[in-house]
């Protein structure tokens, strides 16, 4: 017996449009999406499974009156039965071959439930409660679960938020399903089927539907707020509004005249609901699949040698016999706000005869050469970097999935560089894309984050590892001018590793989304912060005018880009020096408590150049609280030029 047009018509393929919202919703919410598998899953469900279920139901019921999607259905033949079997078999085979085993197994269960619902032998649909629950569970929560399996190749973990969304999906179907039966009470009774809608009556069906949709909304609210996405819930309400309005209007008509509970009004309700919900979830897909970038982890490391500021001050003072210089060193040291600094150099608390790096004389002469300093950098930079990187939770399992490596430093150079050394020592993918930000000073970490942000926004699966490593103390200079009174007394050594990803994920209280970057070059500070090579190491220019330049320009900079200080609840500011931090606070009229992390890092580590702002940001992120959801974070660092680099983040 051949397959004719009437047989195809009874599959009611366009009816799949009404059942599409839950798949689109699952696609929008899946943590990961395997797009080609998602496409196969979509086609299998909507062009094979749903039509086969419709066709089987039509074959068993032999409808002579209107049925969902068809106002005047033709009579089925045996060809329809065999076609539904073929579609089911094809769907399962394709699922195994082109999607995954879990998805295929879910299809088998869905088909079994569908057949049990309609078949004459079991006929679950004739029982008002059991039939209703079968539809609610399998077309609601189970369909969402099955769709997630097809989209992401993994089972949905039954966390609290996922239980909320499964309940929301089931209550959504619980509201819609009795409404689709409201026009066929008498026909169902003739067939021995007592539906829940018949039990409830016309008025009761509409009231029940309203209650189910209310519960659906409650669980949508709990789901989205538990994920910190309360705004998405309100977006959904906008799309639900036309549905509610037509539902209310139709209920009004039915209360006046029961004949309004007819096929045409039911289909009109279905079309409005399907168009609104499909549109809503397509928009959620667009929103959720727009590439973003997140800080997923920040870890830090310092060398083994920790020195008090008093110890380092004594070392500096002992390098000169000039009383005036000694007095100036002591005065400046007392104003730095620093208690401890770290160094790869073991000499600072030793007697001259025990020095390992400096010349074994109190005067430190002759000073170490640039070659000696670079050898020390090469000896320690990789080891210190690895110490920070390995603290990243799950790094060993994740490292094979890293797509990019960005190294940052301004205190040492060698080739092959730090990036290649890290690849060798950590056994990273030899094809990883790498780049370096070199010699850009204290704000280079934000520049590296800007590059990582651009990568993640263009590559949806990007995982970028940023490593900032600075050994500032290897450039200690036997100089006593104002620049070196500052630099010798504030700089320390440290490293920070940051994982920036295109997909949200972290161990912090909230996901940390990178929002925006802004830059400003103050040309009138060109010579006030500079960094140059010399025969005896790197020479620092750091004048006392830097805090004034920052104080006078930071507020105009924020005003120019339309940012108000009170828009930010959290601050991660590079502690370039105590006066810089104090003047930053004063310029923006902030309470010093807002920069508690900045003052703390300055006190316990000093200024470590590029990683310092990451030490501060790490402390800010680790002290976040649940109620901080939606709060914004402002980060800033200052470098040669004089340049100001800022970054805005958000807890989501």
UniProtKB/TrEMBL annotation:
Keyword field contains Nucleus: no
Pfam families: Chal_sti_synt_C, Chal_sti_synt_N, UbiA
Domain of life of the source: Bacteria
Organism taxonomic ancestry: Bacteria, Pseudomonadati, Bacteroidota, Cytophagia, Cytophagales
Domain Chalcone/stilbene synthase N-terminal span(s) in chain numbering: 295-503
InterPro entries per record: Chalcone/stilbene_synt_C, Chalcone/stilbene_synt_N, Polyketide_synthase_type-III, Thiolase-like, UbiA_prenyltransferase
Transmembrane portions of the chain: 6-27, 39-59, 79-112, 124-142, 162-179, 200-223, 229-255, 267-287
Protein source organism: Dyadobacter chenhuakuii
Family: Belongs to the thiolase-like superfamily. Chalcone/stilbene synthases family.
Residue ranges constituting the Chalcone/stilbene synthase C-terminal domain according to the UniProt record: 521-651
Protein name (database record): UbiA family prenyltransferase
Subcellular location: Membrane
